[in-house]
Design goal:
Layout lengths: L5 E5 L6 H8 L4 E6 L2 H7 L5 E4 L5 H8 L4 E4 L14 H12 L7 E5 L6 H4 L7 H15 L3 E7 L5 H4 L5 E5 L5 E2 L4 H13 L7 E4 L5 E2 H12 L4 E5 L1 H8 L3 H15 L7 H7 L6 H10 L5
Parallel strand pairs: 1-2, 1-4, 2-3, 4-5, 5-6, 6-9, 7-11
Antiparallel strand pairs: 8-10
Helix pairs in contact: 1-8, 3-4, 4-6, 9-13, 10-11
Length: about 300
């Protein structure tokens, strides 16, 4: 495999995609394939090339991939429905692989989830729909013959500030499960190292942070270091399930947190730390950094 110089990113404007793009752009030539170029220009570094493309349009994907060495995929499935006609992580991935035919793509890396990591899957009592769909997409990539890595992260610390509503940090269901929370900054550094040495990368790469912390403790530490005036609340899962009977989004939220509450993180990332570096961001460091960010960012 030749050294990677040019990387096409799909999902570049996502909450987890944009920080990875910024990190990749410091080392590689990055082209973001996006549906909305105007939005992308406001979010991504100025040296990132922006090309309009859509996972439903193979021709646009092929044009965007022309001349690229590798692909990074930041995709997500946000539904509890197993019967939709199109999922970005399955049908979208199938279109992407079709678009690579005849091109010289050396390597594909994709964000997944710890619940799609094969050793973890064996211990899962009932997997959630997003993991089922993404594993089907992984099979499509694997069948392409292109070298690939599926990153399998646990919960991102960035989930915590997104759970703030009405001056309270809120969770749904079980707060006792322990999680090796990972920051997107640490994850982005690992992704960069993977693209620098893809031939040494495993197919499946578990991503976990420096310490296992129960959800309740993580919430307490986040509030302490970010904004001690925030309240901490945990909503009963059954209430969200009841609302989900009438609201598709809340049905997915209930599905997601039911899964979260039933699965605690074993530690899988020892080899990842050796290969890609040990994460150093704790909940405390993350919260303080978020607090110190300039207003409006």
């Amino acid at each position: 495999m030749r050294p990677i110089e040019k990387i096409a990113v799909i999902g570049a404007t996502g909450r987890l995609g944009a920080p990875v793009v910024a990190a990749l752009a410091k080392t590689f030539q990055v082209r973001a394939l996006v549906r909305s170029p105007d939005k992308a220009r406001t979010m991504l570094p100025p040296d990132v090339e922006i090309v309009q493309a859509d996972l439903r349009d193979i021709a646009s994907l092929r044009a965007g991939l022309e001349g690229m060495d590798a692909i990074y995929l930041n995709l997500a499935t946000e539904t509890a429905d197993l019967d939709l006609p199109f999922y970005e992580e399955r049908e979208g991935v199938r279109n992407l692989i079709a678009a690579t035919q005849g091109l010289d793509i050396q390597y594909i890396a994709k964000i997944g989830a710890l619940g799609a990591y094969p050793p973890a899957v064996k211990a899962i009592r009932q997997n959630m729909v997003p993991n089922i769909i993404r594993m089907q997409g992984h099979e499509i990539i694997a069948a392409s013959g292109i070298a690939h890595t599926f990153f399998a992260p646990t919960h991102f610390m960035e989930l915590l500030p997104n759970m703030i509503n009405k001056h309270a940090l809120q969770w749904i269901g079980n707060t006792r499960v322990k999680v090796y929370w990972i920051s997107v900054a640490d994850y982005a550094r690992q992704v960069v190292k993977a693209f620098q040495n893809p031939q040494a990368m495993p197919v499946h790469c578990p991503v976990q942070g420096p310490e296992a912390i129960a959800v309740k403790q993580a919430m307490q530490r986040f509030v302490q270091h970010y904004d001690p005036t925030l309240k901490i609340r945990a909503a009963p899962l059954w209430i969200i399930k009841a609302i989900g009977l009438f609201n598709p989004h809340m049905k997915f939220v209930a599905h997601l947190f039911a899964y979260f509450g039933n699965h605690e993180d074993p530690f899988y990332a020892e080899q990842t730390w050796r290969d890609l570096g040990t994460p150093t961001t704790t909940i405390d460091i993350f919260a303080r950094g978020l607090r110190e960010q300039p207003a409006g960012r």
